[in-house]
Write a structure and sequence with these properties.
Strand order of the largest sheet of chain A: 5-6-7-3-8-9
Pfam families (chain B): ABC-3
Organism (chain B): Sporolactobacillus kofuensis
Order of helices and strands of chain A: EEEHEEHHHEHEHEEHEEH
Helix content of chain A: 25-40%
Largest sheet of chain B: none
Number of domains of chain A: 2
Structural class of chain A: alpha/beta
Number of strands of chain A: 11
Transmembrane segments (chain B): 6-28, 35-53, 59-78, 90-111, 131-149, 161-181, 187-204, 211-234, 240-258
Oligomer: heterodimer
Membrane topology (chain B): Multi-pass membrane protein
Structural class of chain B: mainly alpha
Radius of gyration of chain A: 19 Å
Protein name (chain B): Metal ABC transporter permease
């Protein structure tokens, strides 16, 4: 079981340009931690450092877990799925069960695969090709593949970005359930402030050269803070939807794209 | 037909090679490495020609050149070699080297024909032994690395995020591919390695979406192709590799038509 995720004084730069500067944060088991900020702020770079895909110039990432090596689940915004080689969803999800030496799944592995597929509601399209799934179904399959490894930490990189509002809600409800019931730490990147407000326990606001950790999502009700990070007149009205000046909204949408 | 030793050898060697190619082919297709496999066969041609020039066993030359080629591709990165230009440069260079070594070694034209188009008549008991050992090595490695290879071949981003050593998996697979190409060249020849290494796997994906069944089907198609080629080749005295290519290509096109019909049916059901 996970104890803590600690990012300590992380420093990353590309071609002499600082992307992350002295970034420190802690995320506990069962917590939903959001990362928000404009494009190019270093959000995905942070996730890559946590995943171990990118080596920081200085600083460290420590994942304290009961297991010998902490398991990290990763759900991206999209993946390149080769439609020329269609594989069924069940097979795609079981790719995550990569730790055994035998080519076939053991009885225990088959049982846990079925449980995860039931939990993520992917069993109903188990035989369907992964390439033929809708956006929402595909994200569920990606999540199931991450969960089948029973992760200590779950990283979501804009994984709800291409979904309609209903599918976004469903996905986040599932993620919240994983965090609370499995005591998994969840770090998710999102541009959807409504979703962040509803689901995050704490959040990191990040922009080039600055960051702050907000202990609650109330910070999203402060237009000046959002302006400071997004350089746009972003605000959230009382119905928790993003309310933006039409001109700025157009600019923001461009940035998000 | 089976009263002749050379036909017995051809059937044993051909069946083993078909099993190996059918299995490895699914990963070649999954990793989009078809043209690198084709390039390896040309590197193998240069290797076999070098072996004749140096007076060593052609299989050794094949293995030496293709394994070195695999290490080179692995070091420089597979992505670079997926580009058309890089593949065509290496392919031409390998063919050129092969021609140079052959001209220097003063061999008969039949040897060139054998390496380029394959031969079943020349397979003796020693060759069968070598083929058995190499096939077992490749199949065992595929079985042991199956889960990692499957993950990396069909979802590389997921495999990388899961912490799998994808660079080593890639190099290991290229080395296996190099061995498989070296063995296969002896039956179908450098120019038709595609016939056994990629067409059966490419055909299998039209009939199933399960990776394991895809491997089984690919093996069955490759084995039937080799048996068909050897049998018809024996009775007609025409090239075996031609009949192998014909068989697997027909299965491929039938699969393509079947797949399209199924897709249309699914679309019609969804609309209604």
């Amino acid at each position: 079981m996970l104890k803590n995720v600690r990012v300590d004084h992380l420093q990353v730069s590309f071609n002499g340009q600082d992307v992350l500067q002295d970034l420190s944060l802690d995320v506990s088991a069962g917590e939903l931690f959001a990362v928000i900020g404009p494009n190019g702020a270093g959000k995905s770079t942070l996730l890559k450092c946590i995943l171990g895909l990118l080596k920081p110039q200085s600083g460290s990432v420590q994942i304290e877990s009961d297991q010998k090596k902490a398991v990290i689940g990763y759900v991206p915004q999209s993946r390149v799925i080769d439609d020329e080689t269609p594989i069924e969803t069940k097979d795609f999800i079981s790719l995550g069960q990569s730790s055994g030496l035998l080519p076939w799944l053991s009885k225990k592995e088959r049982k846990s695969l079925k449980e995860i597929m039931e939990f993520t509601d992917t069993l109903r399209f188990a035989k369907k090709s992964i390439g033929k799934l809708s956006g929402g179904e595909r994200q569920r399959a990606f999540l199931a593949q991450a969960l089948v490894r029973y992760p200590d930490l779950l990283l979501l990189d804009e994984s709800t970005a291409n979904l309609d509002p209903a599918a976004q809600e469903e996905m986040m409800k599932l993620v919240k359930k994983v965090a609370r019931e499995w005591h998994v730490a969840v770090i998710f990147i999102s541009h959807d402030l409504h979703l962040v407000k509803e689901y995050a326990d704490r959040l990191l606001l990040i922009a080039p050269g600055r960051y702050e950790i907000a202990e609650s999502t109330e910070v999203l009700d402060q237009p000046e803070t959002l302006h400071y990070y997004y350089h746009s007149e972003l605000s959230m009205d009382h119905e928790s939807t993003i309310s933006v000046d039409p001109m700025i909204h157009a600019q923001f949408s461009e940035t998000v794209k | 037909m089976f009263q002749y030793d050379f036909m017995q050898h051809a059937f044993i060697a051909g069946t083993l090679i078909a099993i190996m190619c059918g299995a490895i082919g699914v990963f070649i297709i999954g990793r989009n490495l078809s043209f690198i496999a084709h390039t390896f066969s040309h590197i193998g041609f240069a290797g076999a020609s070098f072996a004749v020039f140096a007076g060593i066993d052609p299989l050794l030359g094949l293995l030496l050149f293709t394994l070195l080629g695999a290490l080179g591709v692995g070091q420089l990165g597979v992505r670079m070699f997926r580009r058309d230009a890089s593949v065509s440069v290496i392919l031409s260079l390998a063919l050129g080297l092969g021609i140079l070594f052959l001209s220097l070694s003063n061999v008969q034209a039949t040897f060139t024909k054998t390496i380029l188009f394959g031969s079943v008549v020349g397979i003796d008991l020693q060759d069968v032994g070598q083929i058995i050992i190499l096939t077992i090595v490749v199949l065992l490695a595929l079985a042991i690395g199956y889960r990692w290879l499957k993950f990396d071949s069909f979802d590389q981003l997921g495999a990388q995020a899961a912490g799998l050593p994808i660079r080593w998996i890639s190099i290991g697979f290229l080395l296996l591919m190099a061995i498989a190409v070296s063995v296969t060249v002896q039956i179908v020849g450098a120019l038709l390695v595609f016939a056994l290494m990629t067409i059966p796997a490419a055909a299998a994906r039209f009939y199933t979406q399960s990776i394991f069944i895809m491997i089984l089907l690919s093996v069955v198609i490759a084995v039937l192709g080799v048996w068909f080629g050897l049998t018809v080749g024996y009775y007609t005295n025409a090239p075996v590799s031609f009949f192998i290519v014909c068989f697997v290509s027909i299965v491929y096109f039938i699969g393509m038509i079947y797949h399209r019909l199924m897709e249309r049916r699914r679309t019609a059901v969804t609309r209604s």
